[in-house]
Amino acid sequence: MHRLRPSYLATAALSGALFGAGLYVSQMVDPTKVLRFLDFTAIPTGDWDPSLAFVIVPAILVMFVAVKYGRKRAAPLFDIEFHEPEYHNIDRRLIIGAALFGVGWGMSGLCPGPAISLVAFLPNELWIFLVTLFIGSYAGSAIVPSGHAKRLANAQ
Amino acid sequence: MDAFSPLSATLGGLLIGLASAVLWLGNGRLAGISGIFGQLLPPAQTIVWRLVFLVSLIAATFLAARLWPGLGVGGDRPAALMAAPDGWSIPTPVWIAIAGLLTGIGTKIGNGCTSGHGVCGLARLSRRSVVAVLVFFGVAIVTVTVTGIV
Known about the structure:
The complex is a heterodimer of chains A (156) and B (150). Chain A is mainly alpha-helical.
């Protein structure tokens, strides 16, 4: 099973480490920092913090180059194929899901990455967010039972 | 405006992009955290690498905070979670639980979060991700405005 090979798991570990370091260095682990970006009412007063844009744009650019390079290759280094989403329709689920996430993100300043990296600091009540994140994720699967396979079938 | 930190933000963004590039070119997997976290239980067949990724992510955050204590949160600057807005009379644990549930359900049925759609999806020029990003940023901005949480 190639997914248990040391090279495969070391790649996952390296990626996770770079991701965690990036979240800390960019200060995106700080919910207040994230919310100061999302607070557009602060733009007129000059208190708006555009840092989040300075995080996501370079991240997208690096990944864009990697995706371009990957397209020239048949497979990644340690797996037999690139696992790219095969569903391309813009449907109600995508919009509703993104909207629900937007409410949760705006309420807390936490998206899943920073929420998990905050385990390093264990702020009060973080466990509540992580447990409900997990429950919500599984409730989502229950609402849409055979999600992936079904959507693929519909896409034919 | 002492909060704006373009240099550390850019450096952190480059690291996050590199993390996504490593996982994609190495293992052919998209570094979408909601997906990695949300598939930790069976019937997912690929739990081990997800666990390795997440444990490593937490460990690196912990180490980075010790190597560069002044940069982010941690140390004498705890990363506190947001309390419910003043005057809403909602206990903070309930507020956090609602946010967690919405984030969990939303990222599951919308197939991604800030990393999966925001970084990887936009980099792949996915139309679905462009729509998702516009919707969740827009709704989050409205939510912050309505709640006045910061």
